[in-house]
Amino acid sequence: MITIDNISIPLPTIRRFPAYLRLLKEHANRGEVWISATTLAEELKLKPIQVRKDMACTGVEGKPKVGFLVSELVLAIEHYLGWDNTTDAILIGAGNLGAALIGYKGFENNGLRIIAVFDKDRRKVGSQIGGIVVSQIEDLAKTVDKFGINIAIITVPAHAAQSVAEMAVEAGIKGIWNFAPKNLNLSDNIVIQKTDLVTSFAELSAKLINHLDEQKQIQGK
Amino acid sequence: MITIDNISIPLPTIRRFPAYLRLLKEHANRGEVWISATTLAEELKLKPIQVRKDMACTGVEGKPKVGFLVSELVLAIEHYLGWDNTTDAILIGAGNLGAALIGYKGFENNGLRIIAVFDKDRRKVGSQIGGIVVSQIEDLAKTVDKFGINIAIITVPAHAAQSVAEMAVEAGIKGIWNFAPKNLNLSDNIVIQKTDLVTSFAELSAKLINHLDEQKQIQGK
Fold it and tell me: Which residue from B93, B182, B205, B161 is spatially nearest to A110, judged by alpha carbons?
């Protein structure tokens, strides 16, 4: 449960918010002013009761027969995701994954702006990735302080993750998005979001073996 | 629950397998032959009972006082993840994210090899990303068939995801790793793994707002 402005929002609802937002913006672009919970449910393949509960969390009230004002829902959801103000972040680790995140179109409209990139490798310092000049890691604290940055995105190799995370926290970072395949050991005060590509692939891999086995058995019978 | 070789393995166990594997390989590299469940539990910050249950799923039996043979555990876990044979995959969408995945060091030892890259954009065809020449999407079916590929990784924009996924399935793809911020509508026969970066960022964002609010309230009191 996440509490924002004294409203408690379940985490699964937060996770669905970006999908709602995407859809609502598509409807807004087509000039549509109202949207019903039924339409949202159909297009996102959710149960209408689920959509109604999620919408209740936004504080936006629907109107009988017509539904919700699209613009009102967009503003409310963006507010709860903190996407009404762009969130500035720094990125540590100027490799391929770092470049991908900087260039990721999906973030464009979702309030994430990567403003600085740091790397320990002296050979990378001064070069550009995604239009951002790579800075030496020693300048991290200065940048975090100067621009009041709260979020660091970590895309370094596993063995370097803990040490750069500690540097970031010491510099004043409050939230870390960790792409390194390594669990970070930090104070409970720090919000950590982990995206582990290897674990995701493991899941796909195992499910697929299971599935292909089943098919073989069916065909063998 | 995933069933492989008639052994049922819970999904959370599958998700922990890559972390075990990483740790076991580190121990093997240091020349260590045996490992205890207690050591595994301590290093991965898991409960020993959890580790014992996970190890039971591998079918490897521990020896009293000394624990498990590291090499046996590595082989067993790699087998259940299908990583004892490298899995070949194709990638659709030759953008930054595609390049990142091709260059991602984390996959190197985890049995995923991207052997071909496709893109709809004629201007990209013939260029290289991560050392692989980009092919036209029309050649997808031929490649899937020729090399017996089961997995497609989709890194195209949201609006193109459904159509390229359908092409892949028609070509014989059985498992899709979808990075496009879009739910795919495919036959139940297809295994889909979704990695949605925007949703992960939404979660981090909302947790952080919640957390900063709390801190403000504590400080204000």
Answer: B205
How much is the ipTM here?
0.77
Q: Rounded to whole angstroms, what are the CA distances from B214 to B29, B207, B208?
A: 45, 11, 10
Pair (A135, A52) in one structural domain: no
Q: Who contacts B219 (Cβ-Cβ below 8 Å, separation ≥6)? A: none
Q: Are strands B175-178 and B191-194 parallel, antiparallel or unpaired?
A: parallel
- What's chain A's length in residues? 221
Same domain, A62 and A135: no
What is the pLDDT confidence band of residue A187, given thresholds at 50, 70 and 90?
A: very high
CB contact under 8 A, A82 and B208: yes
Helix, strand, or coil here: A67?
A: strand
Residues A133 and A164 reside in one and the same domain: yes
Give the percent of chain A with pLDDT over 90: 49
**Interface mutation target, options A203, A213, A217, chain B, most CBs of B under 10 Å:** A203
Residue B215 CB-half CA count within 13 A: 11
Q: State whether B60 and B162 are in the same domain.
A: no
DSSP B32: -
Q: Does A7 touch chain B (CB under 8 A)?
A: no
For residue A166 the two structure tokens come to 């500690």
Domain enclosing residue B115, as ranges: 87-199
**Averaged pLDDT, B177-185:** 90
Q: Is the pLDDT of residue A218 over 90?
A: no
From residue A34, give the alpha-carbon distance in Å to each of A63, A67, A179, B171. 9, 6, 39, 40
**Strand runs (DSSP E) across A38-184, as ranges?**
68-69, 87-92, 112-119, 128-129, 132-136, 151-154, 175-178
**B94 and B59 part of one domain:** no
- Compare all CA atoms of chain B with the CA of A14 and give the residue at the minimum distance: B203
Instruction: Give the H or E element holding residue B7.
Output: strand B7-9
